[in-house]
TrEMBL record:
Compositional bias per record (Basic residues), positions renumbered to this chain: 441-473
Domain Glycoside hydrolase family: 28-361
Catalytic reaction list: Random hydrolysis of (1->4)-beta-D-mannosidic linkages in mannans, galactomannans and glucomannans
Protein name (record): mannan endo-1,4-beta-mannosidase
GO BP, one annotated term: polysaccharide catabolic process
Amino acid sequence: MANSTFKFSFIFICLALTYFVPSAYGDSFVQTRGTEFVVDGRPFLFNGFNSYWMMHAAADPSERNKVTEVFSEAAANGLTVCRTWAFSDGGDRALQRSPGVYDERVFEALDFVISEAKKYNVRLILSFVNNFKDYGGRAQYVDWARNAGAAVSSEDDFYTSSVVKDYYKNHIKSIISRVNTFTKIAYKDEPAILAWELINEPRCQSDYSGKTVNEWVKEMAGYTKSLDTSHLLEVGMEGFYGDSLPEKKQYNPGYQVGTDYISSNLIKEIDFATIHAYPDIWLAGQNDGSQNTFVQRWMWSHWEDARTILKKPLVFAEFGKSKKDPGYTENERDTFLNAVYTNIYSFARTGGGSMAGGLVWQVMAEGMDSYYDGYEIVLPRDPSTTALISKQSHVMQALAQTLRRPNMVRSTGPQVGDVSRGKATKPHFQARTEMGNNRVHAPHPRRQRYHRHQTHHHRNHSWRNLHKLHGQH
């Protein structure tokens, strides 16, 4: 079976080299058809990346070349989707200085990011707000409401306060109705935007059931769709299970964070589901084997649920490995990424495109030391990782081509996550054959995932500590 798997993987790599020709997406929006993404009725699969910093960097004209460099290198390696922030609330280089008050200079920076993505045929997932405090987040909205005399007491009031919700809705409207100063196209009419994201990694400490966040998602998803029916919409969830299906909680990393992957992604206005995974932090102190097993189960469970319960596509929207981990080597990072990529490909293949793609955290340009968080991948400087990323781009593009000819996919036989006879089987968390049996190193738990850009005139604090669990143990 191993030789057969390698044979078919090799076939798809060869097909990728033949089929992979980046093309402009013109005026076509990404849509969903059952559990797959489609463009002009044809299957759309992708390999992509996160670069949260783009608007913030572009707000300084001297740093805009970094945005261009990343899109250029990403496109050259077949990366076709980028997830980035469409928020910066209060503080340095704020997009929204106060409720409804925007800095045109920073808005033009976001315009630039979108226009550059369009130039390099990269589609964007734009997030409206942060769960965490950096770049403002829920805390900033609650502070604004408190200063206006609203009766709010905690960050979780973000989900329930009418004042805060009005502020947030106004931000959604301001983003969606914006007319790009470079392209002259309204954001709501821009096919370079693949999807909107309601919030980056929502959490709610006051209600671990997921019901509070779920009610908020219902309201905000409905509002967003009332303004824009052209673009897809997703929540921004990490994938934690809540109370709607208690038996699914066994797949959580030992705690809840106040969200419910099933109920919130079943909301009709939500077009696709997302998951994130940082097993080295969520399972800090456990060995690499346990962490790998967790990722295997996490991916498989959510993919099966997306396919059979949600009946919507799934995107693995954040994953990575930090250079700051003790004993880190590039080979260990490549082994981890390769294992994730293998499963994304296999789920996409056996599920008819239901695992649409993955977004590695994160791609940066050279000379961005103040933004580096340990997870940075600088494509021209990290050749082995770049080669791995490029290969994944090619095989996903080849698979999209073969999905247009279903008999060709079926002829290759069962793979990881086989759905033969209507039942999905659990996959093995494995790297592609050429990577051998290298194991993923279990990193030190006490480190920070992303840093906010820091200079002498910026707020000097880190993005967040994910090892500080905002959940119920």
